[in-house]
Design a protein that fits this description.
Blueprint: E1 3-7, H1 17-23, H2 29-40, E2 45-52, E3 55-67, E4 71-81, H3 90-104, E5 109-110, H4 119-127
Parallel strand pairs: 4-5
Antiparallel strand pairs: 1-2, 2-3, 3-4
Length: 148
Amino acid sequence: MSINIEIIKTEDILIILPLLSTINTKTPLDILEKRVLEMAHLTHYECVGLFSDHKLVGIAGLWYTTRHYIGKSAAPDHVVIDEAFRGKKLGEYFFNWIDVYVQSKGCEAMELNTYVTNAKSHKFYYNQGYAIYGFHFLKVIRKDKKFY
């Protein structure tokens, strides 16, 4: 098994949709595609791909910002490893690569959100050195008030 990690090019960003759809089951595919295309063109976003024998088996979006309380930081988002590749330490390998990569871009910290119901991810992030410092709140201001 050959493992490769690389930044997914803007023009190739839609290759993440099958994996992204496994964790985002509420958003209609056409809306998800539109949002991903918009994200890919933002200057403060990149998507990292984890490939096994040239097959995309993991993704992590990276959002970059500078915050008064921690400095320049990266926020991994929509992190997913293909279910068939879980339990092989690829997530740990992936996040070690991401740590080094964002440090090379001048980041001083990483912060992320994970759903409260995703206990497996909580254990994983604790083991990667993350700690809980607060709560993430969300208010939907669309007219339909739905989360998708």
